[in-house]
Amino acid sequence: MSEARPSDRDPPPRGIGDIVVSSRPYEEYLAMFGLGEAEVVAGPVLDCPGGASAFARGVRARGGRAVAVDPVYGTPPRDLVARVRAGLEHGLRYLDQNRESYVWSHFDSPEDLTRRRLAGLEEFAAGYTGADEHHVRAELPRLPFPDRSFRLALSAYLLFSYPDHLDEAAHLAGLRELLRVARDEVRIYPLIDTAYQRYEALDGLLEALAAEGVTSEVRRTQYAFQRGADEVLVLRPGGRPGDVGGLPR
Ligand SMILES: C[S@@+](CC[C@H](N)C(=O)[O-])C[C@H]1O[C@@H](n2cnc3c(N)ncnc32)[C@H](O)[C@@H]1O
Question: Would residue 93 count as lying in a domain?
């Protein structure tokens, strides 16, 4: 089948366009999600999407248990690294076109951002040889884990970030699936899309989840980068006490 070509009638891509594979380092995850080190080693953690982030590896290096999930796992290491580097370059061009939409407090400058994201990529690549027990190839809304496998499930820069790629039903199904595999908490960051707009169906989604017993809280973050990305969503599954499942170290 031939690939669809953009025509004059297609709307221009919103925000950054296609979903990029990014490589946020461990420390950036703690800052974005408002988490301390003790919280991420207190029990198994899911990072979905993991992309080329160094977070899960960082948790394991500190004695915790963490699994990353992403449909890109299985891509040969060299190809994945090239894709992440191309995505970083695309992101830097996008940033340059939208300079007023960024706050330079966590990062000093575009050079500092580049250095830290490349360090994240290097750390990820040092532990990635393809899909394995720490890099699970799967995608929302279907995760290959039993209920309550993780103490904490984290999701950065997929849900709410790409509304042109995931509709409202996909968001609800994705959130339900993260809640299914989490025992204590699900955290999502950011709540704005790549065009810097707050995800407009958020309140409706939270109401639907509340009817299922899910508690939600929108917390301010100390971390700032994109203007308006100063909130993290904390969800707690309703009334399901119990132990977390056995996961690889
Ligand atoms: C912008 S990256 C974020 C990666 C990582 N969380 C970070 O912040 O560095 C988005 C990732 O979402 C992955 N992705 C796309 N669709 C997905 C889905 N349905 N379920 C899980 N991951 C998905 C992509 O492969 C990509 O690696």
Answer: yes
